C-alpha cells in the first residue's frame, strides 16, 4: 500500500508505509520538491562600446595602452620597503649644504677652534698682506676659516658663500672684524665689490661646485677683469680627473663616538656624483642620512691653461688628499696670451 500526502506547495507525493522511513523519506522529498524556482533574469542592458586610443591611460588598470609590461618589474607587494633615511636624491650645491652639510660642516673640519687655527696657518704660509687697496675676496668663505685670518692681517674682506647656515656662524665668529658677508653664488661676486680687489681666494674644493668648465673660465675672466694689476688669485681644488675604482671610491671624512661620515664617489664623463653618508647617534639608536650632489671633474692642466690665457703667471703644487694648489699673479691685465 502506498500513501499519498501533499507537501506545502500543494503537490502530491508517495511515501513508504513505514513510519520512521516514511518521515525521513518524506522530509528529503519535500525539501527537494519545495525548492523555489530561480528568479527570472532581468533584461540585460546594451553593452557600451568604448573606443580605445593608443597611448591613453586605462582608467582602471593605470597602464598606457600599447606599451608592453616590463616582465622583470616587481609587483609592489614584492618590492622591499625603503627606509626614508637611506634614500638620496641628487640636489643642488646650495640645497645640499643648507640641508645636509652645513649643520655639520664645522664638525667635519675638526671643530671651529681647530679649523680657524689651521686656516690662520694656511694664510700665513701664503705670505699675503695688503699692498694696494686692501680688498680681499674669499669665494666659498663658509664660516670664516680663511676670511677671519685675512681680516686679522689688515684686509677688507668680502666673504661670499651660498650657505646661510655657514654664514650665520661667520657672522658670530667674525664680529668686530672688517668682513662684508655676502650670501650669493660665487659667479656673482663682482656685484658686491666695494672696489678693485688685490687678492681673490677660492680654497677648499669650492671650484668644483661650478657646473662645467665654461663656468670656471667665465669666473677667471671676471676675476682678471676687476683685479688690481699685480693682484693674486689663489685657488685649490681636488683633482677628480683621474677615476678611483673599487673601494677607493669610499672616502672616510671623520668619525667619533656619536657621528660618522663617509663619502662615496660615482663617476660620469664630466662630473662625479658625491654621496655624503652621515650616521648620527640618537639615544640608543643610530640614524643615517644620505645626500648627493655633483662636482666638476676639473683637470689641473685645463685650469692652468685658463689662467695663462687670461694673463696670469701660475705656480702649481700638489697638496695632501688629492688637492692641487694654484698661486697665480695677474701680470698682463687685459692682455691675455
Notable characteristics:
Rossmann fold; 7-stranded mixed sheet; N-terminal domain of TfIIb; single chain; alpha/beta; 337 residues
How are the SSEs placed, and which strands pair?
Elements: E1 3-6, E2 12-15, H1 19-33, H2 93-101, H3 105-108, H4 112-126, E3 135-139, H5 147-152, E4 156-161, H6 164-173, E5 179-183, E6 199-202, H7 213-226, E7 232-238, E8 250-255, E9 259-267, E10 271-282, E11 285-296, H8 300-309, E12 312-318, E13 323-330
Parallel strand pairs: 3-4, 3-6, 4-5, 6-7
Antiparallel strand pairs: 1-2, 7-13, 8-9, 9-10, 10-11, 12-13
- Give the strand order, joined by hyphens, for the main sheet: 5-4-3-6-7-13-12
Q: How many β strands by DSSP? A: 13
Low-confidence stretches: 12-25, 48-87
Proportion in helices: 10-25%
Supply the helix-strand structural class: alpha/beta
Gross CATH architecture of the domain at 93-239 and 298-330: 3-Layer(aba) Sandwich
Element order: H for helix, E for strand: EEHHHHEHEHEEHEEEEEHEE
Amino acid at each position: 500500500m502506498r500513501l499519498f500526502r501533499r507537501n506545502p506547495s500543494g503537490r502530491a507525493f508517495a511515501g513508504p508505509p513505514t513510519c520512521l522511513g516514511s518521515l525521513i523519506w518524506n522530509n528529503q522529498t519535500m525539501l527537494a520538491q519545495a525548492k523555489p524556482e530561480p528568479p527570472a533574469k532581468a533584461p540585460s542592458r546594451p553593452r557600451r562600446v568604448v573606443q580605445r586610443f593608443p597611448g591613453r591611460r586605462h582608467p582602471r588598470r593605470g597602464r598606457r595602452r600599447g606599451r608592453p609590461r616590463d616582465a622583470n618589474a616587481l609587483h609592489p607587494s614584492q618590492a622591499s620597503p625603503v627606509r626614508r633615511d637611506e634614500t638620496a636624491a641628487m640636489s643642488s650645491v646650495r640645497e645640499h649644504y643648507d640641508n645636509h652639510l652645513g649643520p655639520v660642516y664645522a664638525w667635519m673640519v675638526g671643530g671651529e677652534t681647530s679649523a680657524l687655527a689651521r686656516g690662520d696657518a694656511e694664510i700665513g704660509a701664503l705670505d699675503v698682506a695688503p699692498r694696494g687697496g686692501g680688498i680681499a675676496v674669499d669665494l666659498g668663505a663658509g664660516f670664516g676659516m680663511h676670511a677671519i685670518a685675512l681680516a686679522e692681517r689688515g684686509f677688507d674682506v668680502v666673504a661670499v658663500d651660498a650657505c646661510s647656515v655657514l654664514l650665520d656662524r661667520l657672522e658670530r665668529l667674525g664680529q668686530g672684524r672688517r668682513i662684508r658677508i655676502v650670501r650669493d653664488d660665487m659667479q656673482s661676486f663682482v656685484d658686491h665689490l666695494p672696489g678693485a680687489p688685490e687678492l681673490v681666494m677660492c680654497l677648499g674644493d669650492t671650484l668644483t661646485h661650478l657646473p662645467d668648465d665654461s663656468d670656471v673660465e667665465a669666473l677667471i675672466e671676471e676675476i682678471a677683469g676687476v683685479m688690481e694689476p699685480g693682484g693674486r688669485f689663489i685657488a685649490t681644488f681636488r683633482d677628480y680627473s683621474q677615476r678611483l675604482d673599487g673601494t677607493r671610491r669610499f672616502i672616510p671624512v671623520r668619525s667619533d663616538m656619536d657621528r660618522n661620515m663617509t663619502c662615496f664617489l660615482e663617476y660620469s664623463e664630466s662630473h662625479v656624483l658625491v654621496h655624503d653618508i652621515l650616521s648620527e647617534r640618537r639615544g640608543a639608536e643610530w640614524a643615517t642620512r644620505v645626500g648627493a650632489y655633483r662636482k666638476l671633474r676639473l683637470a689641473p692642466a685645463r685650469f692652468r691653461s685658463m689662467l695663462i690665457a687670461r694673463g696670469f703667471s701660475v705656480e702649481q703644487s700638489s697638496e695632501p688628499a688629492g688637492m692641487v694648489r694654484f698661486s697665480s699673479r695677474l701680470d698682463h691685465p687685459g692682455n691675455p696670451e
